[in-house]
Amino acid sequence: MKHSLSQPPRIDAGLFFLRLTGCLLLLHVHGLPKVFHFSEELTRIEDPFGLGAYLSLLAAIVAEVVCPLFILLGVFTRLACLPIIGVLLVAMLFVHPGWSIAEGQFGWLLLIIFTTLALTGPGRWRVFGGVAEVERGAG
């Protein structure tokens, strides 16, 4: 069997689909509501480490809005997954420790998606240098 450094196009399509759907779900359900309803969110945000509502909300917005935009573009994907993974772990382990798997399934699934992307990277279908391209070589 011949070993090749390039992966089949279906792998790149799968990674792109994972990036697209995971980021759109995170943005729609968690990120954009925090931006559009900032003042209201300040009264509801959990603050498990005593940083204050403002800093906790800003951290959540970075993880749930800024980082998904980088991941959608395939730019700094592995690095951009780390704040998302951190916020999800804090939510699941510190803010909602009593949730059953069923109650926290959305958070756990997002954690699976973004941990997978942190391990694999974006694949070859990504934006680089402001121009959409299918990069040749390793993803």
Please render the helix and strand layout as text.
Elements: H1 9-36, H2 38-44, H3 53-73, H4 77-95, H5 105-120, E1 125-128, E2 131-134
Antiparallel strand pairs: 1-2
Helix pairs in contact: 1-3, 1-5, 3-4, 4-5
Overview of this protein structure:
It is a single chain. This protein is mainly alpha-helical and 139 residues long. It has one domain (9-126). The chain has helices spanning 9-36, 38-44, 53-73, 77-95, 105-120, and strands at residues 125-128, 131-134. It has a two-stranded antiparallel ribbon with strand order 1-2. A hairpin with a 2-residue loop joins strand 1 (125-128) and strand 2. Helix 1 (9-36) crosses helix 5 (105-120) and helix 4 runs antiparallel to helix 5 (105-120). The radius of gyration is 17 Å and the shape is globular. Residues 129-139 have low confidence and may be disordered. The chain crosses the membrane at residues 12-31, 51-72, 79-99, 105-121. Keywords: Cell membrane, Membrane, Transmembrane, Transmembrane helix.
